[in-house]
Amino acid sequence: MIDNMSIAIDGPAGAGKSTVARLLAEKLGLLYIDTGAMYRTLTLSVLREQLDLSDEDRITKLAGALNIKLSNQPLDNKVFLNGEDVTEAIRQPEVSRNVALIARMPAVRQIMVNIQQSLAEKGKVVMEGRDIGNKVLPGATYKFFLTASPEERAKRRYRELIEKGYEVSLNDLVRDITERDNTDRTRLTDPLIPAPDAIIIDSTNMSLVEVTNNIIKLIAAGNNGGTSE
């Protein structure tokens, strides 16, 4: 395998990006960067400050002032906001419902992209998000786009939230994920679309461990473009 390898993983909500990226980082000895956690942390701060979710100027200023730190460890990936551990807080349903509104703001995205590119400068990284292959790491050694049916993705998110003690409705999650998909795919800045050279993997009928092993096989074979099922 390539010594200075970088892997970009994109996909919609609930596609398994975080789990697969963490497993890849652990198995391949790479730095793990969860870009979605950065947008979630900003969203949490916006909600705490009770800012108008449409006030792009104030939210952009807040984004530039926040001190967001990621531990970047695949087995213990913690997120800190101004020194506070917000790893669990950023996964609250209220944050999930509003993060797309924040993430679609062009000025906010540029601030985040600059930070993400700086983190990845030294290579040996697996980075996951929604615009990694097209925007953040266009020169990544390998690019993967994970997807699954909205129903399957909602079931995964449902199990995750129930395990954490949240009371949620599966039907509501299907609706939320469908709405998030539409928001991500239609935003003017860096919409959610596969990079032209990304390998597309539909994991609807696969476990995330199977997805990870499939990706490792593709990397070992030097496959860096196309579709895998």
UniProtKB/TrEMBL annotation:
<dbReference type="GO" id="GO:0015949">
    <property type="term" value="P:nucleobase-containing small molecule interconversion"/>
</dbReference>
<dbReference type="InterPro" id="IPR003136">
    <property type="entry name" value="Cytidylate_kin"/>
</dbReference>
<feature type="binding site">
    <location>
        <begin position="11"/>
        <end position="19"/>
    </location>
    <ligand>
        <name>ATP</name>
    </ligand>
</feature>
<feature type="domain" description="Cytidylate kinase">
    <location>
        <begin position="7"/>
        <end position="219"/>
    </location>
</feature>
<comment type="similarity">
    <text>Belongs to the cytidylate kinase family. Type 1 subfamily.</text>
</comment>
<dbReference type="GO" id="GO:0036431">
    <property type="term" value="F:dCMP kinase activity"/>
</dbReference>
<dbReference type="GO" id="GO:0005524">
    <property type="term" value="F:ATP binding"/>
</dbReference>
<keyword id="KW-0808">Transferase</keyword>
<keyword id="KW-0547">Nucleotide-binding</keyword>
<keyword id="KW-0067">ATP-binding</keyword>
<keyword id="KW-0418">Kinase</keyword>
<keyword id="KW-0963">Cytoplasm</keyword>
<protein>
    <recommendedName>
        <fullName>Cytidylate kinase</fullName>
        <ecNumber>2.7.4.25</ecNumber>
    </recommendedName>
</protein>
<dbReference type="GO" id="GO:0005829">
    <property type="term" value="C:cytosol"/>
</dbReference>
<dbReference type="GO" id="GO:0006220">
    <property type="term" value="P:pyrimidine nucleotide metabolic process"/>
</dbReference>
<dbReference type="InterPro" id="IPR027417">
    <property type="entry name" value="P-loop_NTPase"/>
</dbReference>
<dbReference type="Pfam" id="PF02224">
    <property type="entry name" value="Cytidylate_kin"/>
</dbReference>
<dbReference type="GO" id="GO:0036430">
    <property type="term" value="F:CMP kinase activity"/>
</dbReference>
<dbReference type="InterPro" id="IPR011994">
    <property type="entry name" value="Cytidylate_kinase_dom"/>
</dbReference>
